[in-house]
Structures are given as C-alpha cells and as structure tokens.
Design goal:
The protein is mainly alpha-helical. The protein is 77% helix and 2% strand. Among the domains are: 145 residues, no CATH class; 83 residues, no CATH class. The structure holds zinc ion (ZN).
C-alpha cells in the first residue's frame, strides 16, 4: 500500500510508520520484561508467604498497575501517530487520500489487536501465578490434613468430617465436645482463593473463548440476535465450565452449580433492553431475507420495522454477504436512483461500501 502512494507522501508516511513500529517493539520488550520479573518475584513471594494474602495481593496489584501503565503508553503513542498521519492525509488527494485512510484503519486495528493481546497475556499470567500460589496452599493443606487431631479431654483420636471448616466434634471415647478449627493452609485453600484459582486455571480456555467472543460481538456495528446469543453462549460456557469443575473438585463447595450459573447469566438479561432485543431480531430477519434475495419480503420488512437502508447495507458489508448487498442496493436504487444509469450507480455505491469497510479502524 505504501508503494502505491505518490513519492513525497510516501516518504512522510514511512517516517510515521517506522516510528509506530519502533514504538511497538520497544513497549513489547517492556511487556516481556514485566512478565519475566513477575514470574520470578511472585514465585519468591509464594514460597515465603503462601498463607499471608497481604504481600501477594500487593504484588498482584502492582503487576496490574504496570500492565495498565503499558496500555496507557500505547494509547498515548497512538494519539501522536494518529495526529501525524492526519497531517499527511490533509495534504493528500484522490487515490492518495483513499490509500492513507486504509492505512490508518490498518494501524488502528493493529493497535487494538496489540491491546487485546496484552489483556490476554495479563489474564494468562495472573491465572497461572494465582494457581501456583493455590498449589503451594494445597500442599500445605494436605500436610495439615495428615496431622492427627486428638480429643482435648482424653487424647483419643477424633474423626473430623468437615475438616475444611470449624466444627464441633464429639469424642467417641469420652463424649466431650471438641471445637476443631482447620489450619491456615486448609482455611486459605478451601475458604479463600485457593480452590477458585485452581478451578479457574482448569477452565481457562473458556475464559479466553469468552474474551474473543465479547470482542467479536462489540466490533459489530449492526448486531443480530444470533450474534448476541453467540456471545452470551460463550459467557454461559465459561461459567458452566467453572462451576461444574468446582463442584467436581472441591469437597467444601456446597452451592448448586445450575443456580449459580443462572445467577451470573441474569446480569446479561437484566441489562439487555427490550428495544435492543427487538432491533437485533429485526436485523437478523432483514439479513436472512436479503441473503435469500427476497426483495419483496425485504422491502415489506424494512417498512414494517422502520429499518434504515444504509445501516442494513453496513450489516451486510461487515459480514461480507455479497448477495445481501446486491438485494439491498437494488432497493436503494429503486428509492434513490433518480433515473441515473443503474450500472454506474450501483458500482459507485459498492465502492463507497468497500471504502467504509476498509476504513473502519
Ligand atoms: Zn475424649
């Protein structure tokens, strides 16, 4: 794309591009550094303080602040690059202007990909290190479980059923009631964050799938109900994997997985307005009619649902549904063509749509 620019603009654009790429390499190295340091530093803290949440909590907060700082740096650098590219675009005309707007969109997408990858790296790192901490806690809890518990009155060994929490145990020899409390390893693993961290690590693939699904959904300008259900389905799969794994692995977990999953999902139903749902359903039917080439049904549907033809075209374009674009353009020509030659009119509208698609940052 760069090679197609006219020479004076090409030279100026190259400078901006190289600056941006150089910046990403530099900040990428800072990320690698942060990950490597966190790995070593957190291992040391885990070895020294596995049952003290204070120092580890502080270390995780510091790590999060460091990642946020790197994200801010990328956003600030992008603002500068954006401004410099704008200055070049101000001097561009015709083909140069179109090329530069596509180039801008490419860079903007690369920035968003970069930030998303950074989110994923942070998520992976914290999931792994929190699970490492949980493994250290688990080992300690197993040692504590191996220690015999004796009656404080007669010294006979006690049988502790709910060993993961405090309980009153009646001695089978002398019938005295003993108040028994778990050790710190058991308390932190089963009562604190330990079991959660191991279950989260086991179900992490669903966490990443959910992040991808959310990103894909939010990138759509004109979502359909099907798109929304795909996104919400990924969220449900994540919670299902989490609670089912928790119920299978953790004897101290007493919740009902299905009720807990539904409680999490109610958040999505609660914030979803009826108007949004209706609009998504109307968009879905519109796309189906357009893809089927049913122009009569499509025209009736657009009127009944008061859909904007321009938005419908964006919906078809962002899904690269050529047949649907054709059907919608035919309707648009019938409405706005004003007797202009049809072939040229359609070709011009298609070019505009392609430019819109390529220019989306
Ligand atoms: Zn006893």
């Amino acid at each position: 794309m760069l090679a197609q620019l006219s020479p004076p603009l090409r030279a100026r654009t190259t400078v901006v591009l190289e600056k941006w790429q150089g910046f990403l390499v530099k900040v990428g190295a800072r990320v690698d550094e942060a990950v490597a340091e966190a790995d070593v530093g957190l291992d040391e803290l885990i070895a020294a303080h596995s049952t003290d949440p204070g120092p580890l909590g502080a270390a995780f907060s510091a790590l999060q602040a460091r990642f946020r700082g790197l994200q801010t740096k990328v956003s600030e650098a992008w603002e500068k690059i954006d401004g410099e590219l704008d200055a070049v675009r101000d001097d561009a005309e015709g083909n140069d202007a179109a090329l530069l707007s596509r180039l801008w969109a490419q860079l903007s997408r690369s920035r968003r990909d970069w930030l998303f990858d950074l989110d994923l790296r942070y998520e992976r790192l914290t999931i792994r290190k929190e699970a490492d901490l949980a493994r250290a806690l688990y080992q300690q809890s197993e040692r504590e479980r191996g220690e015999p518990v004796n009656c404080h009155h007669c010294g006979a060994p006690l049988r502790v059923e709910t060993w993961w929490q405090s309980s009153n145990v009646v001695c089978s020899s002398c019938k005295v009631v003993n108040s028994v409390s778990p050790g710190p390893g058991i308390a932190y693993f089963y009562g604190g964050n330990g079991a959660h961290a191991l279950v989260r690590e086991r179900s992490q693939d669903w966490v990443y799938a959910q992040l991808h699904a959310e990103r894909a959904y939010k990138a759509l300008r004109v979502p359909t109900e099907e798109d929304f259900q795909r996104y919400v389905g990924a969220v449900r799969a994540m919670y299902t994997a989490y609670y089912q794994t928790m119920a299978a692995l953790n004897p101290a977990f007493s919740g009902d997985p299905n009720a807990l999953i539904e409680a999490k999902m109610s958040h999505y139903a609660h914030y979803d307005s009826g108007a949004d749902k209706k609009a998504r359903a109307a968009n879905g039917v519109m796309l189906q009619l357009a893809m089927a080439g049913d122009r009569v049904g499509l025209g009736a549907h657009l009127r009944a649902e008061k859909l904007d033809l321009g938005e419908c075209l964006y919906a078809a374009a962002e899904r690269e549904q050529e047949g649907a674009i054709d059907a919608l353009l035919e309707l648009q020509y019938a409405a706005d063509g004003d007797g202009e030659p049809k072939g040229a009119w359609l070709a011009e509208r298609r070019r505009e749509l392609e430019q819109w698609l390529a220019g989306r940052g």
